[in-house]
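Review this chain:
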Amino acid sequence: MGCWILYLCIAVKKQSLTSVGRNDCLRKYQVPYRRWATFMINYSVYMMTNYLKPKEGPKAYAKNQVNEIWSIGKFAKHIADHNGVYSRGTVKGVLSDMCECLVEQLLNGNKIQLGELGTFGISISSEPTDSLDKFSAKNIKAVNILFTPGEDFENLVSHAQFNLVPSRAAQNATLKAEKSNEKTVDLEAAKKKNNTSSGGADNSGKPANPSGGSSSDTGTTVNPDGGAGSEEGDGSEG
């Protein structure tokens, strides 16, 4: 007997809510159960500086914690497990082919609309010149990917609950103290050590970016519109 998961589906004939198996829900009624789900997001709070108002000094901002980084294989398995119609290999193949074709068509100058996912396009970055006649293709330095979220990516806050958790630095310091049989933890020292070792970078090892935020605990520049970014675990214990 398979493992049944409780899903709410609209029974069109009975005009009532009923609980059915996951696959029956998706195949028979074609109702996207994900629209009804609520998911938990872990977050920590950091003191960071708004780069538009540096004189105001650091203020408290939230940063979500990244639980895992999924490979395309794991994501393909997740998709396959959700509906049972296509195998993991088929899903992975479609995703891989889509990426290849997406790059091809973007470089052809096309904009790709992927329904509820969103729209992909490109822009180019270039070094300026003093006049039009001095500009050439050599001044173009980068091709940038533009993504405009679709309907399924709008208002995600309505599908989220938020759970305050310790920062990665605090978690690592606590774990290290437990292994060393220490009775107390100096959280401030752990935060300063984390900030110094990262050199102003976030926990993924990348330089701090004002447009994306940073995971440093104090005095870090933050973009008020883009948020404080996210905090990825590095797998270390201290």
